[in-house]
Each structure stands twice: as C-alpha cells, then as structure tokens.
C-alpha cells in the first residue's frame, strides 16, 4: 500500500480550518506555506516503551507544550469480570489475580475479603492465615513500589535505577516462588484463608531476604534523593493538589503526597492491621518527586510490618491457615514439589485409597463449589497504587452473579490530563510514571 | 470491614443455616430468612444442573430456588445510619428521594429515585454533616428478570471526613436506560460511567462525553449484560460441540 492509498492520510476540512493527517513518512506531502498555527495531535502509544504497557495518550501539542492530553485505554481488556461469572467463587481468584499483575496479592485479597463478607466469615479466618496475608501483601507492596521506581527511572534514562529495582524485586519474587510456587498470578489467597502453609525453611529465607532488602533500599535514597538531575526532572512535575485528588478520586501515594494521611490500613483496618506497628508516610510535595519519596519510605514501613509478621508466624507454627468450616474450606491440600505446585501426595492417598466420603466431599467442593447467600458486598483495601475495591453480588449460587473491581490504576489514570496539560512533552512521561498505572488493572 | 465504623446491632450476621451446602435444603432456609428480614424475591430458578421438564429421573428437575435479595429495612437503622438517612432526606426537594433503605452485612444501601440522583449526590457531597466527598466506584448489575428494574447502577461513596461509607443504588428499566450523570458533582465518575455505559448500555444524561472506554468504539452490544450472547467456539469432537459458558450445565 502506498501512502496515497492510506485512508487515514490526506487533508480534511473542518470548521477550525484544514486538518492534515500524516501517518508516517509522508510529511513531505504537506504544503506548509500559508498555514497558521501548528497544533499537532499526536498519538503516544499504545505501543510506546514508556507508557507502561498499552496506554495510548492522545496529545495536542504546540511545539513541546501540551495543550490537551487524553488517555485512551481498553487495549488490554480481557473480560476478567465477565469470565468470573462463569466460574466458581474459588476459581474467581485465578482470574482476578491477573488484573494488576504487578500487585497480584492485592487483587486476590480484596476479592476474597468480599466473598468472606458475603459468607459472613470475616471474623472466622484463622489468625495464621491473616498473618500470612498481611506478610504477602506487604512484600508485594515493596515489589510493586520497586517496579514503579525502576520503570520510572528507566523512562527518565536512569538505567541504574531500573537494574537495581528489578534486582531487588527478584529477591521478593523468589520468596513468592518459595511460598506459593509461582512468581506471579499466584491464586494463593483463597476465600477462607490461604491455599497452603509456609513450606519448611521459608522463615529463614524470609529473614535473610528482609535483611538484604534493608541493606539495599537505602541505595535508592543515596542514588536519587538529592541527585540534581533526578530532582530537576521530578520536582514540580505532575502537580495535583488535595482538592484535585479528591475530585478525581485519586488515592495512594499521589494523595498522601498532598499531606493527607488517607491509608485504609489505619483508617479502616482489615486483616488485623490495627495490631501492627507502622507509620503512614505523607509529604507536602504533591508532585512526582513527592510520590517517589513516599514510595521509598513506604517500602521501609512495609519491611517493618513483614518483620513483625515473621515473628508472629514463628509463634503460630502449625496452626490452621484455612477456615474451620469444611463446607467452605478448599479440601485439596497443595504442596510445592520439585516440579512446581500440585496436590499433596498425602491428600491424594487419602481420597483415592482411604475414604470414599472424602473423595465425594472433594469432588463436590471442587466441581460445584460452595453456595454464597444472596446479597452484595463492597470491600476496599489499600493497594500500593491506592484504594482497590471489590463489589461482589451473589444470587445464592455457586458462582459470582457479578464481580466488579475498583482498580486504583483505572481511577488514578484519569488525573494524567490534569497533571500534564500546560506542561512539557517530556514531563508527560514523568507524570504517567508518578501515577504508576498498570494496564492489566486499568483494562481488566 | 472496619468494626468501629459499623453501628452494633445493624448487621444480622448470617448463621450457619444460611451457609448450608445441600441444595435440597436451600429453598427452605432461604424462605425462613425472608420471613425474618422481609427479603425480596427477584427471580425463581427451576431445575438444577441443566435438568428441565420430562424425562428427568433424577429429581433435580423439580428443584425450585428463589433468588432472594435482602429486603428493605425500617427505621431506626441504628448508629450513624439514622443521622445520614435523616440528613439526606432533609435536603432541598429530597424528601422522597429515598425509595428504600437496605442494611445488609454491615453496609447501608440507599435506593435513590433516578430523577433525584444528581441533586442527592450534590447534597451528600456538600452538606457538612454528610460530606461524602469521595466517590470510590460506580458499577452496574443487570437483573433481566426484575421487570421494570432491570438495570442497577451502584455508587460507592466514602466520607473521609467522618470515615463512613454508603452505597447509592439507582434502578432503570431496560426500555428506558437513562440515569442522570453525577460527573458535575464527582468528576472521578467520568470513566466509571463510561465503563457502565460500555458494559451495560446505561445512558448517563449530562455526561460530558459518553463513549465506549474498554471495548472498541464500533463494538456492537454491551458485554456485561446477562442477555449478551457469549458465542462459543465450535470444537468438534466426534460430532459434538462445546456450548457457550452460559448455555452449559451448571449448578447455579
């Protein structure tokens, strides 16, 4: 196809004057003589290395100044919410963990909390399961913030920040692999508890990893905090004050960067967060630099919580990790073998060789699932990116009638327009990175 | 999830009987609940696991299971629920804005008449004793069997000032799927309402640019509706094909 056959090229007349459409390699076809003004509408994305996946920004620019910015999303829509309506309540975890793939435990946790609220078993979850959940969530918060800082640095050209960030995230992914058998998409937190207890030696590896992270996290502060180039790129970029945040529904680090300490772990505690000792980080710098510093400090607070979890896990060795109600608890015990995660050999021996009733019970729960009393519930927890919410509706059946997720990336991304307009083109990248959207969560 | 924000006594915690797993007891227990809490039957399902009509020797075809949603609560609701309900009704022209109040699982839901939604939202945000300044989420649910009330749109509102959370629920019939937009009050609802339009076909009157957001611009239909055909890929195996997920046998 030559450029002259391209239906998107050519000139169109509009009330505001002629609009020239160029699609690449055809700039020479435009006669610039006699054209007043030079507003360009440029698609940044959906394939652009610094737009966090498949985000498409439609920018109206005058030279390098942004006159208008709109975000086009939906390129990663996979129908997760619709798919969940045709699977059992437990299988739903496997779907929703894939939404915000950088922070999968938060998707699982908020969904399970909503299912547990519908079942009315929120207070029956064993203590050890809650401790494991909190620990996994906080480790995941660190790994998510590391990705935010790493990719944000890479987009500025600070490649060392990127290599350090992914190096340290690897430590946490190794922990996840030890505990859940998978590095991502764990489906580990289940309605009623968690899929399996910690394997042998996990606590030692946890202690070593936390100690290593404690040593390495200050490296980011040393490298970036007072770095003049870094500050020059981040300070006063992507400004959004408290009123703007509330109007646009922005939560998480961008909200706390305005000085408002809205953190659901403190404001509406869940999973026993009220029993842990940690601080909510705020700053009076509502720009990209403030958000970066908040993420940095929050990682240290998360490690503090993880250390408390490790002590509690050592003290609760051998306690159950799944709700006592056998009509809800997943019957199949999983184990992590040399070749990955699978059913534990003891459980297979029990249902196949010892007890017919156990086999029936296993079969009914795994194929049919449990019934959830009709009604609806909405649960919010604090994810690394902001408030993640799950609205689950049951019709009394074995599958969700409707599951909807309020993903923080989806909401926070709306604010990119307000952050970018009037600024420079190069600052768009910084503003988007400071919001830290993950398109898997935005598009679901 | 927070206990300190929930007034005591407002939440009838489901008992063990409500969580029964055996489908044959389901109807009985559900009906007992309905007497206790004035629940609402929105649909009656018949048969189970795809068994319908004659030729059924299993007995499953005779199962009847009403889908009963929690019903309306009567005042006093307890704790701050009453304060919010009274303050809400005290707004300008909002005396009959509340259609009913449902309290279930520690959450309060105000069913708002759709023509008064915009004024209600503005009052909820601006009244100093209400101050629901944060609209967390807008989502939709489709109940094809609730004649005249098929489309439900839900607004999750948080008051950060008072640390409270409420839900507004607005219903519209399939034949007239119009609901006023709350974007003038909550700019964050912009993308949420576009998503509900995209997924359910609810038209938000007054929205600045109601276009599809997740599906392609030229997509036909609204995928999250229950009557949306799921299709299905014909996988041939010895002459058999696999039905779409909504037409397969299921326990629900």
TrEMBL record, chain A:
Residues 156-444 form the NADH-quinone oxidoreductase subunit D domain. Gene3D superfamilies: Cytochrome-c3 Hydrogenase, chain B. It catalyses: a quinone + NADH + 5 H(+)(in) = a quinol + NAD(+) + 4 H(+)(out). NDH-1 shuttles electrons from NADH, via FMN and iron-sulfur (Fe-S) centers, to quinones in the respiratory chain. The immediate electron acceptor for the enzyme in this species is believed to be a menaquinone. Couples the redox reaction to proton translocation (for every two electrons transferred, four hydrogen ions are translocated across the cytoplasmic membrane), and thus conserves the redox energy in a proton gradient. InterPro entries: NADH_Q_OxRdtase_suD, NADH_UbQ_OxRdtase_49kDa_CS, NDH1_su_D/H, NiFe-Hase_large. Its EC number is 7.1.1.-. This is NADH-quinone oxidoreductase subunit D. It is an enzyme of class 7 (translocase). It is a peripheral membrane protein. The gene is nuoD. Belongs to the complex I 49 kDa subunit family. Keywords: Cell membrane, Membrane, NAD, Oxidoreductase, Quinone, Translocase, Transport. It holds the Pfam family Complex1_49kDa. GO terms for molecular function: NAD binding; NADH dehydrogenase (quinone) (non-electrogenic) activity; quinone binding. NDH-1 is composed of 14 different subunits. Subunits NuoB, C, D, E, F, and G constitute the peripheral sector of the complex. It is found in: Cell membrane. Residues 1-20 are annotated as: Disordered. One of its GO terms (cellular component) is plasma membrane. It comes from the Bacteria. Its main location: membrane. NCBIfam families: NuoD (TIGR01962), PRK06075.1 (NF004739).
TrEMBL record, chain B:
Its EC number is 7.1.1.-. It is an enzyme of class 7 (translocase). SUPFAM superfamilies: Nqo5-like (SSF143243). Keywords: Cell membrane, Membrane, NAD, Oxidoreductase, Quinone, Translocase, Transport. It catalyses: a quinone + NADH + 5 H(+)(in) = a quinol + NAD(+) + 4 H(+)(out). GO terms for molecular function: NADH dehydrogenase (quinone) (non-electrogenic) activity; NADH dehydrogenase (ubiquinone) activity; quinone binding. Residues 13-38 have a biased composition (Basic and acidic residues). Residues 112-232 form the NADH:ubiquinone oxidoreductase 30kDa subunit domain. The keyword Calcium does not apply. Residues 1-38, 233-252 are annotated as: Disordered. InterPro entries: NADH_DH_suC, NADH_quin_OxRdtase_su_C/D-like, NADH_UbQ_OxRdtase_30kDa_su. NDH-1 shuttles electrons from NADH, via FMN and iron-sulfur (Fe-S) centers, to quinones in the respiratory chain. The immediate electron acceptor for the enzyme in this species is believed to be a menaquinone. Couples the redox reaction to proton translocation (for every two electrons transferred, four hydrogen ions are translocated across the cytoplasmic membrane), and thus conserves the redox energy in a proton gradient. Belongs to the complex I 30 kDa subunit family. PANTHER family: NADH DEHYDROGENASE [UBIQUINONE] IRON-SULFUR PROTEIN 3, MITOCHONDRIAL (PTHR10884:SF14), NADH DEHYDROGENASE UBIQUINONE IRON-SULFUR PROTEIN 3 (PTHR10884). HAMAP family: NDH1_NuoC. NDH-1 is composed of 14 different subunits. Subunits NuoB, C, D, E, F, and G constitute the peripheral sector of the complex. This is NADH-quinone oxidoreductase subunit C. It comes from Aeromicrobium phragmitis. The lineage of its organism: Bacteria, Bacillati, Actinomycetota, Actinomycetes, Propionibacteriales.
